[in-house]
Amino acid sequence: MVQVDRESQFDEPKLDRRSLLKLGVAGTAALATAAPLTAKANEGGFGTKVHSDIPYDVSPEYKRFNQYNTVFNSDRRKGIPAMSPIFDDSRPGFSFSEFALSMASTNLWMNPGMEMEVVHQPRGVLPTPYQFPDATTAHAQLKRAARHFGASLVGITRRDERWDYSDVVIYESGGHETLPWEKALPDFNPKTVIVVAWEMDYEALAASPSQISDATALNAYSGLTYILTHMTDYLNYLGYKAAPAVNGLGLNVPYAIAAGLGEVNRMGMLQNYKYGPRLRIAKIYTELELDEYYDKPVTFGIQRFCENCMHCANQCPSGAVSHDIKPAIYTAEDVKDKPYINPGIRKWHLNGQKCHDYWIESGTTCATCIATCPYNKPDFWHHRLIDRINTYIPGPLHKFMAEMDLWHGYGNMFDEKAPAVFWDPKGRSYDGLKG
Ligand code: SF4
Ligand code: SF4
Fold it and tell me: Comparing 7-16, 132-141, 311-320, which segment has the lowest mean pLDDT?
């Protein structure tokens, strides 16, 4: 097998027609063509570092998260009604048309072409699973397929049980049951997790919170569902079992980090080099193994930037985002009354209960924290240049850079003059938002 460096999230190989054809018959050669690009990215150019494992402290006391404890599940158990979208033709961003746009955006997510979070079996076209010429080719073919089906980003990592739910909640008509992961997916021993991400629309998110920003998030979930169903079928045709999951089965953020798609930020979300946090993530587990040919985690200074930038914490209407300067490993004692927080990883821990309460009160989902982030920018060259310079700049200057972002008209979600903002800064209380 020819060894070349793994591609990263921001310099994937640009395969021309000839390389694509070569990929079909001799993928190793095609990847060798792309190797100079990937090697350059992974050598740490532009301040980027490549890591062999997830680049955050994981405490020995860390435990796999139980899906039973997500805020959505615990609210459901408490009988708290789910967020009910509202419309009000007199309110920008909440007209009936925008409400309809949001509802229609859920379509594929709510009605997927195949069942999610279960194991799908090989199609049986070949008597035994298809063997790629080598892991390099398999890696490239899987990425090409995910791109083909619409992924903005794709990373491939080894399955890591730390990031799988300890227990999976299965909803059936009239009730639910909670099963250990291994019992919920019997006879399934995945080796690989393919992580895909979908870019949300910049302009739509700038209208957060509203049915417009909600629509782009829901459209992303429908888009991810499309990718997952098709990737699962692709793997099944190849002769491998696969289990697709948008938010189910495991934690998306650590898997995305392990797959080299970015870092964890102050909001606890994935921060990608190109898209910032303006992404939704999903994954497919499969039994196909890629030897050691997996993507690797990268860091490019996000935690250091977040220590000095508080935009998301300052702009969050519910106070869910931490104002702590440094990320922390909470002990179980600290969070024993907050089962939705999973301690044991050094990061900023989002108060998901406050966030979800706000969604329910305001009648729409919210993405204000994402919209305000300085890394959330359209793909103009000068934004990318500043992102790259960031990694070389000492910490305190990051605060100045974050302030400059506001001076240039970005990220202030409460600016009454900003045309894209449909938020009433005087009506920040939840009641004031009800239609
Ligand atoms: S989605 Fe809205 S309420 Fe939730 S953390 Fe982000 S800004 Fe705060
Ligand atoms: S808004 Fe600032 S603090 Fe929040 S995630 Fe983005 S860079 Fe980090």
Answer: 7-16
Task: Please report how the helices 135-148 and 17-42 are oriented relative to each other, as an axis angle in degrees rounded to 10.
Answer: 110
Q: To test ligand 2's pocket by mutation, which of 264, 304, 306, 348 has the most ligand atoms within 8 angstroms of CB? A: 306
CA of 94 to the centre of ligand 2 (A): 27
pLDDT at site 273: 86
Segments making up each domain of the chain, as ranges: 17-433
- Which alpha helices (DSSP H) does 274-351 contain, by range? 302-308, 311-315
Cβ proximity of 211 and 85 under 8 Å: yes
Helices 135-148 and 211-238: crossing angle in degrees, nearest 10, is 140
The stretch 398-414 carries a mean pLDDT of 67
Alpha helices by DSSP H, 46-124:
71-78, 96-105, 107-110
Query: Which atom in ligand 1 lies closest to the alpha carbon of residue 370?
Result: 6
d(C-alpha 264, C-alpha 252), whole Å: 11
* Cα-to-centroid distance, 266 and ligand 2 (Å): 6
Instruction: Provide, rounded to the nearest whole percent, the portion of the chain with pLDDT above 70.
Output: 77
Give the pLDDT band of residue 412 (cuts 50, 70, 90): low
State mean pLDDT over 23-43.
37
Assess whether the C-beta atom of 369 lies below 6 angstroms from ligand 1.
yes
- CB count within 10 Å of CB 175 equals 7
| Exposed / middle / buried, residue 35 (Cβ in 10 Å: 0-12, 13-18, 19+) | middle
CA pair distance 195, 246, nearest whole angstrom: 10
Residue with tokens 């490239």: 140
Residue 352 near residue 73 (C-beta atoms within 8 A): no
Query: Measured between alpha carbons, how far is 270 from 139 in angstroms, rounded to an integer?
Result: 22
How confident is the model over 290-311, as pLDDT tens digits? 988 999 999 988 998 999 999 9
Residue 4 has pLDDT above 50, yes or no: no
Strand order across the 242-245 sheet: 153-158, 192-199, 279-286, 242-245
Closest atom, ligand 2, to C-alpha of 267: 5
Q: How far apart are CA 54 and CA 130, in angstroms?
A: 31
Alpha-carbon distance of 259 to 143, in angstroms, equals 12
Q: Are 342 and 336 in contact (CB under 8 A)?
A: no
Residue 362 Cβ contacting ligand 1 at under 6 Å: no
Whole-number pLDDT of residue 333 = 85
Distance, in Å, from the CA atom of 31 to the CA atom of 25, rounded to the nearest integer, reads 12
Residue 203: pLDDT over 50: yes
